[in-house]
Specification:
Keywords: Membrane, Transmembrane, Transmembrane helix
Helix content: over 70%
Distance between the termini: 85 Å
Structural class: mainly alpha
Largest sheet: none
Number of domains: 1
Shape: rod-shaped
Number of strands: 0
């Protein structure tokens, strides 16, 4: 058999193999992209939650600082007033 006679079956088998492998690779890449998108969305949601929690804690610390530095009111009156105020 000649060299050309061997190339035809090799090429004939190689084309479907390459096609199947490329489709599999494309599906795997798409799957990984979806995983990364989901992970980044979850990370963004957690960051937003942490930011909101930090903001609330900063507000509470600011209130406590005002209570400690404000000498014109009594501490118990201020605590009672803040206890009755709605939280943001």
């Amino acid at each position: 058999m000649s060299t050309m006679g061997l190339l035809v079956p090799i090429i004939g088998v190689s084309i479907p193999v390459v096609f199947i492998a490329s489709r599999t690779a494309c599906k795997w890449i798409a799957f990984k992209e979806k995983q990364l998108t989901l992970a980044s969305t979850e990370a963004a949601e957690k960051a937003a939650q942490y930011a909101a929690k930090t903001e609330r804690l900063e507000q509470r610390v600011a209130v406590l600082e005002r209570i400690l530095t404000d000498r014109s009111t009594t501490l118990s009156d201020e605590i009672d007033r803040l206890r009755d105020a709605p939280l943001n």
